[in-house]
Amino acid sequence: MPDTQIAEPIAPDAPIRFDTKVALVIRADLPVWQKLNVAAFLATGIAAAAPEALGEPYVDGADRRYGRMLGQPIMIFAADGDRLRAVRDGALERGLTLVPYVAAMFATGHDAANRAAFRAEDPAAPDLVGLALRGPKKAVDKTVKGLALHG
User: Fold this and answer.
1) Is the Cβ–Cβ distance between 131 and 88 less than 8 Å?
2) What pTM value is reported for the model?
3) Cα separation of 134 and 49, whole Å?
4) CA nearest 142: which of 100, 87, 95?
5) DSSP states of 49-116 as a string?
6) Residue 136, SS3 per DSSP
């Protein structure tokens, strides 16, 4: 395994302002296990679409290395199906990175089947259960304006 340089730590209380924002919007009426499943898949979609947003590996006090995570907070909002479609439309208009999850994907067992299920959706009215968005902070804020954080 190649040796990589660990960046100097930032003081935990140092304020950091991010130019980008990551938001997940998940349908409010799903069972908890589905909400968690959707959130996990959507977060991986953002990490794949924006590898530059990943932080450095974690290293514990015994110098054991762990994986990386997104280096900024992820806000998780609740919405109904109509509002999810409105968020999708706003994200598309603003050119945001967008990762979708539709209800039909709950019945699939692998990535190729998920993509086929998504492609089969009506593009004008997909049965969205979740979306991940990433882009300039102001554009994401406008896109999710009015949504409440998931409770």
Assistant:
1) yes
2) 0.87
3) 9
4) 87
5) H-GGGB-PPEE-TT--EE---BSS-EEEEEE-HHHHHHHHHHHHHHT-EEEEEEGGGGG--SHHHHHH
6) strand
Coil/strand/helix, residue 131: strand
Query: What is the C-alpha separation between 27 and 131, in angstroms, rounded?
Result: 9
User: Where do we find the tokens 């660990």?
Assistant: 6
Contact 72, 53 (CB under 8 A): yes
- The pLDDT profile of the chain, 151 residues, written as one tens digit per residue, is 444 445 556 666 767 788 999 999 999 999 999 999 999 999 999 999 999 999 999 999 999 999 999 999 999 999 999 999 999 999 999 999 999 999 999 999 999 999 999 999 999 999 999 999 999 999 999 999 999 999 8
